[in-house]
C-alpha cells in the first residue's frame, strides 16, 4: 500500500497548490502565488484553517468584494503573461455568486484563475442551510451551477478523494495556453473540512511544461507562400502574441519584410509604439493609420487574435473580396476564423521559423507606413490641443449636446478640460515602464487610439468582457505582479461607482496604486451610443430629479479611504498632481474633471454593429436603423 497522509480536503488542496510549477523556455517557477479570500461560514473553517496553519509559500490577501478580488487575480495573471495565478475563495451563496462576473471576465480574456466557491453541505444533513437555494425540481442545484457558463473547467468535490482527479484536470486546463481560463472547483463546506488518507505521491512536485508547439512543414510552407504572394500584408497582433512573448520575432519580421504592425487591445504593447512600423490599435477604436493599413491590406497575418467585433469593426474593416487571412494561434478554433490559412502553433516559435525562411521578400509599402504614422501623429497632436470655449465649441462627439448643455457641464463640474488633452498629457508624464490598466467606458477607446506604450507589456486593457469595475482591482493585481513599477487605473466615474473597494486592500497591504478618475458625470460612451443612434439622453447622464448635473466629490471619497488625493480641472494642475503622485509612497487618486463628448470619435473603418430599434416613433431612430441595416448588408457574415 502506498504511503498516505491524513488531511482535510482543504489542507490537501493547499498542499497540492504549493507543489505546482510551470516550465517555459527551460525556466521553472511556482505557478500559484497565493489566495485572495473573503471568509464566511462556507470557507473560514475549511480553507481558512488550512491557510492559517500550513500555507507553505502561498500568500493570502483579504479581499473586500469577491468580484474585485477576483479581478485583481485576473490582472495579476494577465500581467504575468498567464505564467502565475491566484486562487480566489469565497463563502457559499452570495459570496460565490459575487465572483461570477469576474469568472466571465477571465473567460472572455482567456486568463487562468482558480475559482474556489464554497458550496452547501454535500451530506445535505442540515438542509436547507443559510444561503442555500431550494429548487422545486432538484436538490442537486446550487448557486455554483452558474459557474458552468463561465468556466473552462468546472467540478464539485462531493467526496474528499474526488479532489485528486479534479485538481489534475484543473491544472492541465490552467497551464494549457490553448484552453486556459477560469477553472472552478466548488467546495461544499462539510467536505472542505472532512479528512481523508491521501496518497503522499499526489503531493509530489508537478511541473507543467508549456512547450512551444512548432508548425508542421505544411503549415510553415503555407505561411511562407501566403506572405510571399502578398504585396500588402499586415501583422495583426493579438493577446496571444503578447502571451507568447513574440516581440523580438515580430519586430524582426516587420523590419526585414517591411510589414506594418497593428494591435488589438490585448495585443497592444507587445511591440512598443516607438517602433516605426507600429501603426497602433486597429478596429472600431483604432487609429486612422492602423485602420487605413488594414482596409488596404491583401493579407492579414492574425497572430493570437480572436477577431472580436472591436478588432474587425463588426466584420466590415477588411476588404473581404481581396484580402486573405493567415492565422497563427495555439487554439485551433481561433485559427479557423475568416477561412484563414491555419497555423496551429506557438506564435513566437512560428515567427522564428518564418523569419528564417522568408528570404528577401519585401512588401510593397515603401514610404507609406511613415506617411500613415505622420498623419496620425498630426491628428493626435490636434487632439492633445483641443480647448473648450463657451461660444462655439464643437466637441469630437458632435451634434449631441448643444453649447448650452456643454456650458452647463462646464459650470456644474467647474471644468473646461477636454478628455483627449488630459489623457495625452498623462501619457507624456507617466514613466515609460509604468503599467496602465483600463477596461470599460470611453477610456478604452481613447487608450487604444491615443496611448503610446513605449515599453513592452505596460498596456493592460481588459477588453474581452469590458467589465466596469475591473480597473482599480486590476491596478492592484498588476502592482502585485510588478511591485517595482507604478500602476495606474484609468477609470471613468461610472466604473468607479460600480466597484472600487479593493482600494482598501491596496492600502491595507501597502501596494501603491494610482487612480486616474475621469469625471464626466455620466455613462459617457453609452450616452454617445444612444444619441448616435437617434435617441435622446435618458438614463445615461448623472442628473438628479431636478435635472441638475451631479457633481460628486470623488477626491473626498478617496480621502476618506486614506488615499492621497487631488482634484484637477486643467492641464497645469493635472501635471503637478501627476508629478506629486509619483513621489508618494501611498496610493493616490487624481480626480480629473472633464467635459462630456470630448473623448475621441471614430475614424474610417470604425463601425459597430449594435441592436438598433427596427421600428420607432422617432424619425431619427428610423434613420439610424436604415443606416445600420445598409452597413449590415455589406458586412461579412461569418
Ligand atoms: C459591469 C458592466 N456593466 C455595464 C456595462 C455597460 N457599460 C459600458 S461602459 C458604461 C458606462 C461607463 O461610464 P464611465 O465609467 O463613467 O465611462 P465614460 O464612458 O463616461 O468615460 C456602461 C454602463 C459594462 N461594460 N460593465
Ligand atoms: O457597451 C459598451 C460600449 C463600449 O464603448 C464600452 O467601452 C464598453 O465598456 C461597453 O460595455
Ligand atoms: Mg463617465
- The gyration radius over C-alpha positions equals 25 Å
Q: What composes the largest sheet?
A: 6 strands, parallel
Determine the mean pLDDT: 98
Through-space gap between termini: 57 Å
CATH C-level category of the largest domain: Alpha Beta
Based on secondary structure, the structural category is alpha/beta
Q: CATH topology of the largest domain, anyone?
A: Rossmann fold
Number of helices: 25
Question: Beta-strand level of the residues, as a percent range?
Answer: 15-25%
CATH level-4 homologous superfamily of the largest domain: Thiamin diphosphate (ThDP)-binding fold, Pyr/PP domains
Keywords: Hydrolase, Magnesium, Metal-binding, NAD, Thiamine pyrophosphate
Region (Thiamine pyrophosphate binding): 442-522
InterPro entries: DHS-like_NAD/FAD-binding_dom (IPR029035), Myo_inos_IolD (IPR030817), THcHDO_hydrolase_firmi (IPR023757), THDP-binding (IPR029061), Thiamin_PyroP_enz_cen_dom (IPR012000), Thiamin_PyroP_enz_TPP-bd_dom (IPR012001), TPP-bd_CS (IPR000399), TPP_enz (IPR045229)
Catalytic activity: 3D-3,5/4-trihydroxycyclohexane-1,2-dione + H2O = 5-deoxy-D-glucuronate + H(+)
Summarize the structure.
The protein is of the alpha/beta class. The chain is 37% helix and 18% strand.
Secondary-structure topology with pairs:
Layout lengths: L3 E5 H10 L1 E5 L2 E4 L1 E7 L8 H7 L5 E4 L3 H14 L5 E6 L3 H4 L2 H10 L3 E7 L33 E4 L5 H13 L7 E7 H5 L1 E5 L6 E4 L7 H13 L3 E5 L1 H5 L3 H11 L3 E3 L14 E4 L6 H8 L3 E5 L5 H4 L11 E5 L3 H4 L5 E3 L3 H11 L10 H17 L18 H11 L5 H11 L5 E4 L4 H8 L8 E3 L8 H12 L5 E6 H6 L3 H7 L5 E6 L4 H9 L21 H8 L2 E5 L2 H13 L4 E6 L25 H16 L4
Parallel strand pairs: 2-11, 4-5, 4-6, 6-7, 7-9, 8-9, 12-13, 12-15, 13-14, 15-16, 16-17, 18-19, 18-20, 20-21, 21-23, 22-23
Antiparallel strand pairs: 1-10, 2-3
Ligand LX7YND4F binds next to loops.
Amino acid at each position: 500500500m502506498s504511503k498516505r497522509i491524513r488531511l482535510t480536503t482543504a489542507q490537501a488542496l493547499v498542499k497540492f497548490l504549493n507543489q505546482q510549477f510551470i516550465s517555459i523556455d527551460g525556466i521553472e517557477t511556482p505557478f500559484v502565488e497565493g489566495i485572495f479570500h473573503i471568509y464566511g461560514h462556507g470557507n473560514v473553517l475549511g480553507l481558512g484553517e488550512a491557510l492559517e496553519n500550513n500555507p507553505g509559500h502561498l500568500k493570502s490577501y483579504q479581499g473586500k468584494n469577491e468580484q474585485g478580488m477576483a479581478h485583481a487575480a485576473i490582472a495579476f495573471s494577465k500581467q504575468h503573461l498567464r505564467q502565475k495565478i491566484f486562487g480566489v475563495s469565497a463563502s457559499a451563496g452570495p459570496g460565490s455568486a459575487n465572483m461570477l462576473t469576474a469568472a466571465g471576465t477571465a473567460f472572455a480574456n482567456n486568463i487562468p484563475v482558480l475559482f474556489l466557491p464554497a458550496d452547501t453541505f454535500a451530506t445535505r444533513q442540515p438542509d436547507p442551510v443559510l444561503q442555500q437555494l431550494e429548487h422545486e425540481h432538484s436538490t442537486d442545484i446550487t448557486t455554483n451551477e452558474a459557474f458552468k457558463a463561465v468556466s473552462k473547467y468546472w467540478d464539485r468535490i462531493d467526496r474528499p478523494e474526488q479532489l485528486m482527479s479534479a485538481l489534475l484536470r484543473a491544472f492541465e486546463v490552467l497551464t494549457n495556453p490553448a484552453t486556459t481560463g477560469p477553472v472552478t472547483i466548488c467546495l461544499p463546506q462539510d467536505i472542505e473540512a472532512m479528512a481523508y488518507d491521501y496518497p503522499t505521491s499526489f503531493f509530489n512536485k508537478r511541473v507543467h511544461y508549456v512547450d512551444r508547439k512548432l508548425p508542421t512543414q505544411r503549415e510553415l510552407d503555407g505561411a511562407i507562400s501566403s506572405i510571399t504572394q502578398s504585396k500588402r500584408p499586415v501583422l495583426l497582433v493579438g493577446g496571444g502574441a503578447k502571451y507568447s512573448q513574440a516581440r523580438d520575432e515580430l519586430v524582426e519580421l516587420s523590419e526585414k519584410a517591411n510589414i506594418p504592425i497593428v494591435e488589438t487591445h490585448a495585443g497592444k504593447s507587445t511591440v512598443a509604439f516607438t517602433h516605426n512600423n507600429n501603426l497602433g490599435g486597429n478596429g472600431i477604436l483604432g487609429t486612422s493609420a492602423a485602420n487605413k493599413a488594414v482596409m488596404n491590406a491583401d493579407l492579414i497575418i492574425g497572430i493570437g487574435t480572436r477577431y472580436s467585433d472591436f478588432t474587425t469593426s463588426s466584420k466590415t474593416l477588411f476588404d473581404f473580396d481581396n484580402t486573405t487571412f493567415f492565422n497563427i494561434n495555439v487554439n485551433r478554433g481561433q485559427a479557423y476564423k475568416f477561412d484563414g490559412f491555419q497555423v496551429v502553433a506557438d506564435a513566437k516559435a512560428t515567427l522564428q521559423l518564418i523569419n528564417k525562411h522568408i528570404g528577401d521578400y519585401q512588401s510593397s509599402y515603401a514610404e507609406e507606413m511613415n506617411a500613415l504614422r505622420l498623419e496620425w501623429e498630426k491628428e493626435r497632436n490636434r487632439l492633445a490641443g483641443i480647448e473648450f470655449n463657451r461660444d462655439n465649441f464643437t466637441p469630437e462627439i458632435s451634434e449631441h449636446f448643444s453649447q448650452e448643455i456643454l456650458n452647463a457641464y462646464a459650470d456644474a463640474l467647474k471644468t473646461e478640460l477636454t478628455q483627449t488633452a488630459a489623457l495625452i498629457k498623462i501619457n507624456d508624464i507617466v514613466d515609460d515602464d509604468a503599467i496602465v490598466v483600463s477596461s470599460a467606458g470611453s477610456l478604452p477607446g481613447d487608450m487604444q487610439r491615443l496611448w503610446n506604450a513605449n515599453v513592452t507589456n505596460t498596456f493592460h486593457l481588459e477588453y474581452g468582457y469590458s467589465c466596469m469595475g475591473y480597473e482599480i482591482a486590476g491596478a492592484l493585481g498588476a502592482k502585485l505582479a510588478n511591485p517595482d513599477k507604478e500602476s495606474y487605473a484609468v477609470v471613468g466615474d461610472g466604473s468607479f461607482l460600480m466597484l472600487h473597494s479593493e482600494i482598501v486592500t491596496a492600502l491595507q497591504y501597502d501596494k501603491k496604486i494610482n487612480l486616474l478618475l475621469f469625471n464626466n458625470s455620466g455613462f459617457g460612451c453609452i450616452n454617445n451610443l444612444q444619441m448616435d443612434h437617434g435617441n435622446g439622453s435618458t438614463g445615461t447622464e448623472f442628473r438628479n430629479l431636478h435635472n441638475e448635473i451631479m457633481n460628486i466629490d470623488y477626491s473626498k471619497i478617496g480621502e476618506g479611504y486614506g488615499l492621497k488625493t487631488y482634484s484637477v480641472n486643467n492641464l497645469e494642475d493635472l501635471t503637478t498632481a501627476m508629478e506629486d503622485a509619483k513621489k508618494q509612497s501611498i496610493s493616490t487618486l487624481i480626480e480629473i474633471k472633464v467635459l462630456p463628448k470630448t473623448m475621441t470619435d471614430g475614424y474610417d473603418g470604425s463601425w459597430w454593429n449594435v441592436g438598433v430599434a427596427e421600428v420607432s416613433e422617432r424619425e431619427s431612430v428610423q434613420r439610424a436603423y436604415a443606416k445600420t441595416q445598409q452597413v449590415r448588408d455589406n458586412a461579412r457574415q461569418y
